[in-house]
Design a protein that fits this description.
alpha/beta; 6-stranded parallel β-sheet; 3-stranded parallel β-sheet; 14 helices; globular
Length: 354
């Protein structure tokens, strides 16, 4: 198994079966040494491109309205128990200003697919952020749109776009989403974003309902083909008011394995240690960093609305002020032997000179 990990480290292209073998066996207790070896090689690969730097993104979740009805999501259209909210442009800009004061140089604007914010309004918001803070990167995470909308927001100054594909297997996708959502359209959106020029982020859930080991291998192979700049990988966590409320959560160990395998496959990808990791284990984000992650995304949204943006249950950091959350992350990152930095944290095209 170490030989397979070494092959991956040295840029070999693994077959689907080899990924499946790693995913299945590395969770077994008898392969504990090999699992530690995988994490060591993942950290070494991250250090080739990013050193010990961990980048922060200030996340503003500005609306939990969504037109879609994805079966796993707590803000799905059909969840009548969700307490809905929308932030005004003025409130969003105030959150961004606070983030800038705290040292964040990437601002992420995230919401459900909420049509009450027009294409022009989002574009104006992006332009206002870039005018006020020219040294920041603006990341959007607003779901599926048509190519001309993505192009307009890019022209307004958006730098990055996050759109998790959730699963690269069409049959699996269709078991997680209602019929009105198209697997083909989701994938096309990702290619459109890359072609336009965004630093593009894809990603998937680990341990989602009906998922097979082969599906996870396909996720890695899809990411290899797409070659995104960012990959968001987190465990499935059940939401009590969703159709999947009774399904088991994804596991910490399997998620960490997938993080490390993606790091070794995509090499210089920007890879978050997600809030979901910290939700399923108190030290989940630290372990994510030790498995090759190099991004954390603390919340800049007003404390009054954070508990309302519940994609899944028991989400952490919903009651902390932004400054508290940042200080907490600094300590956690230091415990993982890394340094939390304040620059934009762009995608590294080349290795750090040795």
């Amino acid at each position: 198994m170490k030989q397979t990990i070494d092959r991956l480290f040295e840029n070999a292209i693994l077959e689907k079966e080899a990924y499946c073998d790693l995913i299945i066996n590395l969770e077994k207790k008898e392969y504990e040494k090999e699992l530690r070896y995988l994490f060591t090689k993942a950290r070494q690969m991250r250090e080739r491109y990013y050193g010990n730097k961990i980048y922060t993104r200030g996340l503003i979740e500005f609306s939990n309205y969504c037109k879609n009805d994805c079966y796993y999501c707590g803000i799905r259209r059909g969840n009548t128990k969700a307490e809905r909210y929308r932030l005004s442009p003025e409130e969003i800009l105030a959150c961004a200003d606070e983030g800038y004061r705290l040292g964040f140089r990437t601002i992420v604007l995230q919401s459900g697919e909420d049509a009450s914010y027009s294409t022009d309004q989002i574009g104006s918001l992006v332009a206002a952020l870039k005018e006020k803070h020219p040294d920041i990167a603006v990341t959007l995470s607003l779901g599926e749109r048509e190519r001309e909308v993505y192009q307009y927001w890019y022209d307004c100054g958006a730098d990055r776009y996050l759109l998790r594909h959730e699963t690269a297997v069409k049959a699996h996708y269709e078991r997680l989403h209602p019929a009105e959502l198209s697997f083909e359209h989701r994938i096309q959106c990702l290619y459109d974003l890359k072609e336009i020029g965004y630093q593009t982020g894809a990603g998937f859930m680990v341990g989602s309902p009906f998922q097979k080991t082969e599906d996870l291998a396909e996720d890695i192979l899809f990411l290899k083909k797409l070659s995104p700049h960012m990959a968001g990988i987190g465990p499935f966590i059940a939401q009590k008011d969703s159709p999947f409320a009774e399904y088991p959560n994804g596991t910490l160990t399997q998620t960490l394995i997938l993080l490390a395998l993606v790091r070794l496959t995509l090499k210089n990808v920007l890879l978050p240690a997600t809030t979901a990791l910290g939700t399923i284990a108190p030290d989940g984000r630290e372990k994510g960093i030790l498995a090759g992650a190099n991004v954390v995304m603390p919340n800049l949204s007003p404390v009054s609305v954070r508990k309302k943006y519940q994609l899944y249950d028991n989400k952490i950091c919903t009651g902390e002020e932004s400054a508290q959350c940042r200080k907490c992350l600094e300590n956690r990152v230091r415990l993982a032997g890394c340094e939390l930095v304040t620059d934009r944290g762009d995608y590294a095209e080349t290795m750090i000179a040795s």
